[in-house]
Amino acid sequence: MTTRSGTDARPSRPFWLVPAQAAVMVALGLFVTAVPAGLRLVSPEDRVTDAFAAHRTPWADSLSQWLSVVASTEGIVGVTLLCVIALLVLPRTPHRADAVFLGGSVAVQSAVFLFVTMCVERPRPDVPRLDGAPPTSSFPSGHVGASVALYGGLAALVWTRVRGPWRYVAAVVLVLVPSAVGLSRMYRGMHHPSDVAGGLVNGIATLLVMGSAFLSGRTRDTEGTRDTEVAHEPAHRPAERTTAGRSGQRAVVVRHPHGCGDELAERVRLFLHRHGYDDQRWTATSVERPCGTLPEECADPSVGLVVVCGGDGTVRACADVVAGTGTPLALVPCGTGNLLARNLDLPLDPLAALETALTGDVFPIDVGRVWGDGLPSTRFTVMTGAGFDAATVRDTSPALKSRLGWAAYALSAARHLGDPGMRLSVRVDGGRARRRRARMVVVGNVGALQGGLELLPRARPDSGRLELVLFDPRGAAGWLAAAGHLACRLVRTGTRAPDASTPASPTGSRTVAGGALEYFSARRIEIRFADAQAREVDGDTMAEGSRLFAEVEPGTLRIFLPRAPGSTPSVPHPSSPAHASPTPRR
Question: How many CB atoms lie within 10 A of CB 418?
Answer without folding.
Answer: 9
